[in-house]
Amino acid sequence: MEIDDADRRILRILQSDSSLPLEEIGARAGLSRNACWRRIRAMEAAGVVRGRVALIDPSAVGCPLTAFIHLRAPHPSPDWVKTLAEVTAPMPEILSVYRLSGDLGFLLKAQIAGMAAYDSLYQTLISRVDLAEISASFVLENLKDSTALPV
Questions:
Q1: Among residues 35, 31, 55, which one has the least CA distance to residue 43?
Q2: What keywords sit in the KW lines (predicted)?
Q3: What distances in angstroms separate CA 121 from CA 20, 46, 136, 148, one per listed residue?
Q4: How do 106-112 and 65-72 pair as beta strands?
């Protein structure tokens, strides 16, 4: 799908507050309600807009600690990557799993209640996935955290 300036305006608005009524989104984007609705639907159908979610304060729901977990596979293979994906998929505390270039291999982002929750997560990972190395870094202060892409 070709994204034009009007689509970009809509995307910036949706990224800041997707709960706005169509009339408000259209007014801010300089479009009629119907034109705005058609563009949003087209972007959803094309997969540009993958979903609309609420952003929740982790501390308010009992998981204030962010952990970045560094993994290295003993012998990386497509089967090992598939196993990691299958093990982590049903774990709600693991928010992201990345395969990286360089020495590190894989990076997981987890949102957890505290060190006891991290230890439980750690024990689960080492019991279900063959690992050459695992370590973690914990966020002490969040200086910036955004979901908005530069459109």
A1: 35
A2: DNA-binding, Transcription, Transcription regulation
A3: 37, 36, 11, 29
A4: antiparallel
Tell me, letter by letter, the H, E, C secondary structure of the chain. CCCCHHHHHHHHHHHHCCCCCHHHHHHHHCCCHHHHHHHHHHHHHCCCCCCCCCCCCHHHHCCCEEEEEEEECCCCCHHHHHHHHHHHCCCCCEEEEEECCCCCCEEEEEEECCHHHHHHHHHHHHHHCCCCEEEEEECCCCCCCCCCCCC
Which domains occur in the chain, in start order? 5-45 (1.10.10.10), 58-138 (3.30.70.920)
Residues 58-81: pLDDT tens digits?
Answer: 999 999 999 999 999 998 899 999
Q: Is the distance from CB of 111 to CB of 66 less than 8 angstroms?
A: yes
Query: What predicted TM-score, i.e. pTM, was given to this entire model?
Result: 0.89
